[in-house]
Every structure is written in structure tokens, then in C-alpha cells.
Design brief:
Layout: H1 6-9, E1 11-17, E2 20-27, E3 32-36, H2 45-48, H3 53-56, E4 61-65, H4 82-96, E5 102-107, H5 109-120, E6 125-131, H6 145-151, H7 161-172, H8 181-191, H9 194-198, H10 208-214, E7 229-234, H11 243-251, E8 255-260, H12 267-270, H13 272-284
Parallel strand pairs: 3-4, 3-5, 5-6, 6-7, 7-8
Antiparallel strand pairs: 1-2, 2-4
Helix pairs in contact: 4-5, 6-7, 7-8
Length: 288
């Protein structure tokens, strides 16, 4: 008789967290690993980590929520402090799961949420894994075209399949040949949920001061953060420039950096096998 797969052992549920409904997938056993997805149109936890959840669930208890504003979770994020709002919600999720401490992984918007969690309550975070995190150096120069396409997806004529196709094929990955039409249509259908269209989760700040309020490099707590951190970044990231990796390493006490050549913003998808092995090794390593 074959042993059940991690996928078969996973559970999908929705919890009431601080007045919001948070949908999540829970799989595996071992140290808790909270996996936070990016903020692109139509994103969700399982779609973002489709190539990572079950390999990592062989060593960890992986908890993969849809962030507020996305997937099957409640819609709406505080536009004045999106990272703080998401961080507070994810701490609420840990409380609901009766987890005092967890590793936290985040891609893009999820990376910004993970870093904010560590800055706000470092004692509840074990190790951090950040992939092309948002909010790193965004006040230092003109935002990338990819970031502006992401932030402007619901503006103008509103969401269209062509806008989504351009963002994913040109900005999200380096090699677009592996992006299927079914993936694009699935993301597009999720992006046009009437609740999302009425209240988009991400919007561009109105001025430079707005970007400065979101820039982690200007946060005085960053150099004091002791949590072991692994930053993974694609050198061809067209949303958040890979220069952010070295900027974080220069300002953080315990920050390792791994740069993937010929890879875009979606490191965990484009380089899945290497990514899974690197992350598992980092989280299991006995650092002094």
C-alpha cells in the first residue's frame, strides 16, 4: 500500500482572524513555515507556491494563506500602511493557529509583509526568507516599469487579459516560454473578482513621501534586527531591482544573499528545485 502524499495530507480551511476571513492550506509536519505570496493581479498562496509547498512540506509544517485582498480571503488592505496591516493580520493568523513562533517566507509583497513582521515583533519570528521583497529602496529612484504596471493594473481602462499577460510574461519571469495560457486565464479570472476591482489591494502612493513611508532601508530598526535572514533574488527582476539584495545585506546583521542568474521576479517558480533545496538547508542549518 502506497504511503499518502503530502498533497493528500494537506488541509484547506478558512479562519476568522481579527474580523477577516483568512483562507489557508496547511500541509506537512515539523517546524512551522509561514509562506506569504506576492501581490500581482490574481495572486494567491497556492498559485504562487505551486512548485514549493509539497516539497517543503516533507520537512516543515507549511502554512500557505491567501493574504487579505487576495484569493479566498477577505478583501481590502489599509492603503496608508499596507505592510503593517498585512503583518498584523498574519500575527493574528499565528495566534489563531496557536503558534507562538514560526519561520516566515515571503515573495514580493509577501516579503515586505514578512520583513515588517520581523521588525515589529522579532521574538515571534524564527528565520526569514525573502524573495525580491517589496519596499526595499523604493524611494531612492524612479519605480521600475514592472512595479508601475503592477500598481496600475486596476487604473485606466481597468483589468484586461492583455495587461495581465504583459505583466506576467515581461515582468514576472525571465523565460516566458513556460507561462501557459491556462495560467494566465486563471490569474485573470481571479483578478476580476468584483470585490477586488472595487477595492484593489495595491495602489501606488500619491507622492515621494508615500514611497518613503514604505521604504525598509529608511527604517531605523533594520540594522538592529538579529533574525537569521536569507535573501534570494533574480538578477533579471524587472519589478524589484536585484540591487536591493546587497542593500539589505549591508544594513542587516545576519543576512545571507543568493542571486539567481537569468531569473526574474518569481524565483521560487523559475528555479523551483534549487530554491526548495536552498531554503530547506538554510532553515535546517545549525547556525552559530
Amino acid at each position: 500500500m502506497n504511503a499518502p502524499t503530502q498533497q493528500a495530507l494537506s488541509t484547506s480551511t478558512t479562519l476568522d482572524v481579527q474580523g477577516r476571513h483568512i483562507h489557508l492550506t496547511d500541509a506537512g509536519h515539523g517546524p512551522a513555515l509561514l509562506m506569504l505570496h506576492g501581490g500581482g493581479p490574481g495572486a494567491s498562496g497556492m498559485s504562487n507556491y505551486s512548485r514549493n509547498v509539497f516539497p517543503l512540506a516533507e520537512r516543515f509544517r507549511v502554512i500557505v494563506p491567501d493574504l487579505p485582498g487576495y484569493g479566498a480571503s477577505s478583501k481590502g488592505i489599509n492603503p496608508q500602511d499596507p505592510f503593517g496591516d498585512l503583518a498584523a493580520s498574519m500575527f493574528g493568523l499565528l495566534d489563531a493557529l496557536q503558534l507562538e513562533r514560526a519561520h516566515v517566507m515571503g515573495n514580493s509583497l509577501g516579503g515586505a509583509c514578512a520583513l515588517r513582521m520581523a521588525l515589529d515583533r522579532p521574538g515571534r519570528i524564527d528565520r526569514l526568507v525573502l524573495m525580491g521583497p517589496g519596499g526595499v529602496g523604493i524611494s531612492e529612484g524612479k519605480p521600475t516599469a514592472g512595479l508601475m504596471r503592477l500598481l496600475g493594473y486596476y487604473q485606466g481602462e481597468g483589468p484586461t487579459l492583455e495587461k495581465l499577460r504583459k505583466f506576467i510574461r515581461e515582468d514576472l519571469v525571465y523565460d516566458s516560454s513556460r507561462i501557459t495560457e491556462s495560467l494566465l486565464r486563471e490569474r485573470f479570472e481571479a483578478s476580476i473578482d468584483p470585490e477586488v476591482v472595487a477595492n484593489p489591494p495595491l495602489r501606488a502612493p500619491k507622492d515621494l513621501e508615500g514611497f518613503k513611508r514604505l521604504d525598509f532601508l529608511l527604517d531605523p530598526r533594520l540594522p538592529e534586527l538579529d533574525n537569521r535572514t536569507l535573501v534570494l533574488w533574480g538578477t533579471e527582476d524587472r519589478v524589484n531591482p536585484a540591487s536591493g539584495a546587497c542593500a539589505l545585506q549591508q544594513r542587516m546583521r545576519n543576512c545571507d544573499v543568493y542571486l539567481f542568474s537569468r531569473t526574474g521576479h518569481w524565483v521560487q517558480w523559475e528555479r523551483a528545485d534549487e530554491f526548495n533545496n536552498i531554503v530547506a538547508t538554510f532553515l535546517n542549518a545549525d547556525h552559530a
